[in-house]
Amino acid sequence: MSCALDIGRRTGGDGRNHGRSASTGNPSSRDSTEPRDNFPVNLAQLRALRAEAAEARLAKESNSTASSSLTPLGSILMLARKVDKLGEECYVFLSSAGSSIELSPTQQKELARLMELLTQLQLKIDGVKGDETVRPHRKIQTKRVQSLLSDLEKVSSGSGK
């Protein structure tokens, strides 16, 4: 008795396919390896899906890898996370500094630290090898870093530094 026939009988069938392919019939019973019918409508959606897939692959990696072993897209996504974290720190700092005319020594140190980290991050972003898939992501992150630096410089110049 063949293995396929044996499996079919155990599940209540006779082991034959009866002329239908496995992918026809109920779409919910399809194997996850089969192609889906919901294709992206435009190029922007395709790029977003590729970015999500790359982020998912990065999230699955349990051990921390050096950015040199990542693909350019993986590197820029890793740097985007760092921009997110630094952006949150900048907004916390900006809200705590408020409209005060003079920064305390602690605030001045924090301002210098944030500006230095953002500058280093910008250099890392500039160092990512660019191809057509990475270029738009790199441009977005560069604009974000420049915007944060600009906001911090406003506080710096307003404090009489």
From TrEMBL:
<feature type="region of interest" description="Disordered">
    <location>
        <begin position="1"/>
        <end position="40"/>
    </location>
</feature>
<protein>
    <recommendedName>
        <fullName>BAG domain-containing protein</fullName>
    </recommendedName>
</protein>
<dbReference type="InterPro" id="IPR036533">
    <property type="entry name" value="BAG_dom_sf"/>
</dbReference>
<feature type="compositionally biased region" description="Basic and acidic residues">
    <location>
        <begin position="7"/>
        <end position="17"/>
    </location>
</feature>
<dbReference type="GO" id="GO:0051087">
    <property type="term" value="F:protein-folding chaperone binding"/>
</dbReference>
<dbReference type="InterPro" id="IPR003103">
    <property type="entry name" value="BAG_domain"/>
</dbReference>
<feature type="compositionally biased region" description="Polar residues">
    <location>
        <begin position="20"/>
        <end position="30"/>
    </location>
</feature>
<feature type="domain" description="BAG">
    <location>
        <begin position="79"/>
        <end position="154"/>
    </location>
</feature>
<dbReference type="Pfam" id="PF02179">
    <property type="entry name" value="BAG"/>
</dbReference>
